[in-house]
Each structure stands twice: as structure tokens, then as C-alpha cells.
Amino acid sequence: MPISGKKYHRRSLGENHDMRPETLMMGYGYDPSLSEGSLKPPVFLTSTFVFDNAQHGKEFFELAYGKREPNAGEESGLIYSRINNPDLEVLEDRLALWESADKALSFSSGMAAIATTLLAHLRPGDVIVHSAPIYGGTEYLIRNILPAYGISSVEFESGIEHYTLEPALNEAQGKGKVGMIYVETPANPTNGLVDLQECARLADALAAKQGHRPLIVVDNTFLGPVWQQALAHGADISIYSLTKYVGGHSDLIAGSAMGRAEVMAPIAGFRTILGTMCSAHTCWLLMRSLETLKIRMERSAENAKVIAEFLQQHPKVAKVHYLGFLPKGSDAEAIFKRQSTSAGSTFAFDVVGGEKEAFALLDNLQLIKLAVSLGGTESLMEHPYSMTHSDVPDDVKNRLGMGESMVRISVGIEHVEDLIADLSHALDCM
Known about the structure:
The chain is 36% helix and 15% strand.
């Protein structure tokens, strides 16, 4: 018989041993006995589910649409795959484990997760204060789409050397109610950092002034969930492009958001109405990928460290924006060590020259693929100025250090000596 709406959980071995997330990815939230003994959850490619009786249908809809609170031990039954689906539920149970979140939600893309979250929690007249640089799609949403709905924005620069969050919040208060602090840390593509504990402190102080505490929303794609857990450091909502490290094979598009139950409930409601949920097959692929997430991220981070050290010594490389190279004893290093446990495997570097030299490097790669995205098993490189961040105004890119000489690399799990040989050849061709 198929898996029922009742979830199956087991997080401990005996009474005294809680299993780690990488172990729980193999079976948490799923009972094989409910699906003909299938070791892995089947793909539930169905639009609708049959109720046992009319009363069950009524009760399921009451919970799904928040018409009443659940009774003790009661969980919403399966209704329709825009609302819930077994693959969706098992995936979200497992995603939540990495950051100890009450609730995780999965979406059809990272931008679907971002847009649904912002629309669920922002209202006309609100101001969103956001770090810069951020992913180009997010930048476009905030700068060009939200103003049509009466939501304005104020930016502040990530990177401790130019930290301007507090002045940005002061400016935002002159425009309206600060509804959200949205940050990307480390930043894409500069690896600039934002102090999440400072964000939480300032949000608390602002609550006393305006009677509303702005939510702290963090795009945790670059280092999470293995190397950074944003919720543990002051974030209310942690957002991911699951396309990247979690998916990890460059064969799917998906996103997620996770946090406390009360802040996730409005997002879940908007997702149901907007229809931005993740498909059952994509959920199944993500569950596959979660089983190897940690070992993939470990290998790619090891490779990245070696490559960053090689690039730092190369005469045709002007600067390497790698988190492992933060100045010793600096505030940036202190924040990095407090919030993160690895420098990860995606970083940018500046070549000597400009667009011509950067393009020559990219065009002469043989093993590393010239493509956008990041976090896959294969290594990728791209030119942020003209590609992923092309929608960002040129003056903003230059001000934030994303010049035409910058290239971004996402290091995969190939043999590191092969990757260095490819980079060495391409740099020699510049």
C-alpha cells in the first residue's frame, strides 16, 4: 500500500544516541512498510489522493487551509500535489534536519523560494534592507519588480571593511516600516560576509522603535547546509537554491526555505496559492542527492583550497576572493570562524587585465566547463560582470568590486591535479 499522510520518524538509536543528518538522509521520514517494502520512497506522480471517507476529506482541508488547529498527534492527510505529496513531505522533513528547523518548504526553483518568501512577509509601504552584492535574480526582483507593489529597498555592502547595515536601517526608517533584512552571506560572487548576530541585534533594537521586528532572511546557498547553519546564528528564515550543492548534479532546478513554524506558515499558504511547489520527481532526485551531500561538499572544498593556493601564486592572477585568505586577526576572519566551518568551494578571482583577458581564460578551458550555476560535481567557471550579474547596473557592479577582470569558479570533485593543469594552460593562453 502507498505511503500514507502519517509521517514516519526515527532520529535516535536507543535512548542515548541521536543520529547525524548525513545518516538520517538514508531513511528519515519514510517507512518502507507503507510502500510495499520499497527501500527508497517511490515517485508519487499523482495529482490527487483518494480519501477514506468524506469526514477525512473535510478534516484534511481544515488543516491544509488553517481553518483550525490540529488535535494532539494529528497531521494533515494527503489531498492534492499542489498542497502536499509524499515525496514533498519526506524531502522537507530531511531538509529541516540540517538546520534544526521546525519546518522546511521546497519550491520549483531558488527564485520561487525567494519570491514566495518575500511576497508572504512584505506588504505595500514596507522597506526591505538587503546586502549587496546578491544573486542577480534576487537583485532584479528587489530593484525592478517589488517597487510596483509598493515595496522599496535600501542596500548595504557586505564585507566587513565596508559594513553599512546600521546606516542603511536608519535610511530605511525614513521610507517606511522595515519589514525584512535580506542578506546573502557569503556574497555571490565576492564572498563578502555579513555578521548575522549583528543583524539580529539591530533587528531587536528596531522592533522597539517601530513596533515590528523585521525578519532576517539569509540566502545560505554558498556554504549551507553543511558548512553554515544560518538559523543557529540569528536568521529567521534560511533560503537555498537546491539546484546548487544540495542537488549537486546539475540535473534539476529547485529551492527551499526553512525556519520556525510561525514564520513558515504564511509562506506555505502563499506557495499553495501561487503553485510554486517542487515537483514529485524533483523531490525524489533531491532525496537521492542528500545522501551524498556531505561527502561531495567535503571533496569539493578540499579541491578548492588547493586551487585557491595555486591561483594566489600565479603571476596572471591579481586577487583571489577566497574565504581561507581572510587577514589573520581581522573582524572578517572572526565572523567567518564564528558562522562557518569551511571556506567552501565557490569563489571568484581577478585576472590581470580586463574583459579581454578574462574571456581568453574562459575560452581556453578544456576540462572546466564555461557555464553558470555552481555546486555541481563538475567544475564550472563564468564571468559575473557579463553573465550572472549582467542585470545589475554597471556602476553598482564596479562599486561592489565585481569588475570585468573577475571570474567565478565552482570547484567540483574531479582530481585536483587535472583541474590545476587545465587552469594553468588557460592562464598561459591569456
